[in-house]
Amino acid sequence: MEVQLSKTAQEALDRDCPVLVLGGPGSGKTTLSLLKAQEMIPALEPGQEILFLSFSRAAVRQVEIRCRDILRSDERRQIAVRTYHAFAMDILRAHGRMLTGSVPRIVYPGEENLAKAAFDGDWGAEAERLARDDGRFTFGQFAAAAAQLVAGSASIASLLANKYPVIILDEFQDTDDAQWALVKALSTRSKTVFMADPDQRIFDYDARVDPERLNHLRTHLSPAEFDLSGENHRSPDAGILQYANAVLTNRPLPETKDVITRAYWPNAFDSTVHAGVVWMLGSLRKAGVAHPSVVVLARTNALVGKLSTVLGQEHNFNGQTIKPVEHDVLWDADLTAAAALVVASILEWPGCPKETALGQTFDRIADYFDAKNAASASNAARQTSERYRTAADRARRGETQRLASAKGLTASYDNGLVLQGDPARDWLHARDLLAAGNDLSDLLANAKFVRLFRATDEIGSRLASAWDLRGSYGRAIDLVRRALEAGRLQSDQRDPRGCVLMTIHKAKGKEFDGVLLVEGQYQGSFFRDTDTEAQRAASRRLLRVGITRARHQVAIIRPRGAPDLVTPASSSFSN
Ligand SMILES: Nc1ncnc2c1ncn2[C@@H]1O[C@H](COP(=O)(O)OP(=O)(O)OP(=O)(O)O)[C@@H](O)[C@H]1O
């Protein structure tokens, strides 16, 4: 890869740590941090590595791909790219005994969900107590415990500093309080390189992610600061970044052919989006990109699910037939697995007493919302989980339901669920009962992603054998759980290419030749009338992250009559 460094970037490369590199999307922060790592590799002693910490497995994967562009294979072996979770878990496993006097036990999310469901009270406080008193650590406790170990023990701190004399911290603006405590403890002995873009702070619904984090860092370490904000290497010749910055700052949108907007009539959503994807692929090829990568982004999982269905069908657009588009979906496997177990629980209904059948289904729904809360903390998910736990208790006691969707599912049970012994049809039949209420739309969308596990054949054949044996699906939940675990191992290793669908949050840190940003008519809205100023600002940051994933072309597809992207209204939204 041909890399030309600006004067500021070169200074950042040459400066001793600690260093803080600020810059907008595509300004070259990740590239620069890996070049810095490359410069420091020769000084490493045998057994030492440079530690690169990021937030998610997806982000780690992205950095590993970038390492392949920039570093030689012998250099790559000296960089450990890890998530905070994995790194903190290793510290805990190796030294946790010092905190509680016994070997620490890891409480995995499934087990945590069950414990949480059975617990009446503040789960956060209980998780802290479990760690402190019982030596049992939930995922949420890892960073805080690791921080305590590193800060409290000079020998652990020097062991880690000796192993990792240099630490690179990606997306530093999103660091939560416990992760910051860990970084602070590590930074006393290791050299540190921080990368951040405050305007890409999109996880601020988590109260532990403090908008003041960069100032904490400045006060604590006084790093040398380098601002790359004038640079844009991702789409240097395109008007994409200017457009995204105008959306961020609510200023008039610049005219550029690189970002086009289309408005659809309510009944033409499917064909407009489908045509948009086909147009994007064609126009990138025409522009000389032989194998274009295109991402279709939406705000919610539910809309991503719908878009996947849309692209899988044939449509008519302006008198032309458009064929289905092959695509991959980057989705949340944990949520899909949890949603699949809800469907499986419905398959267990026939022959199961009402109290048990519905109690179990409502519990599985609550598990789904627990998984959602675990994936990204949200009050709505937490509350919905609690509502379904209550519904499960009411069902077991034979009481009338209060939740609309619990009532709907109860009515479906009362009507008698007739299954035929054809697993594919029965699965869809059971799944579609989840359309009972609006609060289940996200769950239903995730249930539709089950096919992405590439495990549907496996699930189908296990269900078919169960049916053949006893004329019912028996313990469908266990059976589906086992099939998913097997399928999951394979799906995690796939590398999506061509046309990919995902939420905007998932796209962070990635880049594609073309981006389609899609707003639904009734879901995945960019702005809502009820938004506060802070919510509007958060939406603007999120849209900017989405738009700036593109190297060459962006298309924004919105419902006709949607509020303008910027106010005062600009002329560039075409109807
Ligand atoms: N100095 C450079 N010269 C040429 N290309 C570069 C340079 N720096 C980065 N690039 C290219 O620009 C693109 C964006 O770079 P990079 O991912 O490092 O930016 P970033 O600031 O980390 O972006 P984001 O915050 O959006 O994740 C990549 O394709 C990278 O290869």
UniProtKB/TrEMBL annotation:
Keyword hit for ATP-binding: yes
Query: The organism sits in which domain of life?
Result: Bacteria
Keywords carried by this UniProt record: ATP-binding, Helicase, Hydrolase, Nucleotide-binding
For ATP, which residues are the binding ones? G23, G24, P25, G26, S27, G28, K29, T30
- Signal peptide, first to last residue: none
Question: For the UvrD-like helicase ATP-binding domain, which residue ranges apply?
Answer: 2-236
Pfam families attached to this UniProt entry: UvrD-helicase, UvrD_C_2
Q: Which InterPro entries match?
A: DNA_helicase_UvrD/REP (IPR000212), P-loop_NTPase (IPR027417), UvrD-like_ATP-bd (IPR014016), UvrD-like_helicase_C (IPR027785)
Picking any one GO biological process from the record gives: recombinational repair
- Molecular function (GO) terms listed? 3'-5' DNA helicase activity; ATP binding; ATP hydrolysis activity; DNA binding
| Name of the molecule in the record | ATP-dependent helicase
Which species is this UniProt entry from? Flaviflexus salsibiostraticola
